[in-house]
Amino acid sequence: MNLFSPFDYLPPFSYPTTRYVVVSETEYAQYQQERAEQEIKVLESKMNRYNSAIAEIEAEITKIREAHVLPAKPEKAVFGGTE
């Protein structure tokens, strides 16, 4: 007679831990809108940081040009055609 079962090695009450929440369509639409607004704020913040970094870099370039008496900002190259 075998005293052990293969089920003895499983943790007790091992049920899936997936959680489902049921919400109305209007609540889900509001949730999506709030998430979109939050994402826009994050992206705008990132854009502001990038713009600030660009301004700092441009100021540094201008400072170096003036210190070494270099010509003003060169013309940008146009690729794929003429303007």
Give the gist of this structure.
This protein is mostly helical and 83 residues long. Helices cover 52% and strands 0% of the residues.
Entry keywords:
mainly alpha; about 0% strand; 1 helix; about 80 residues
State which percent range the strand residues make up. Answer: under 5%
Morphology call = elongated
How would a textbook summarize the main sheet?
none
Low-confidence stretches: none
Structure description:
The protein is mainly α. The mean pLDDT is 84. The protein has a domain of 35 residues. Helix content is 52%, strand content 0%.
Topology of helices and strands:
Blueprint: H1 25-67
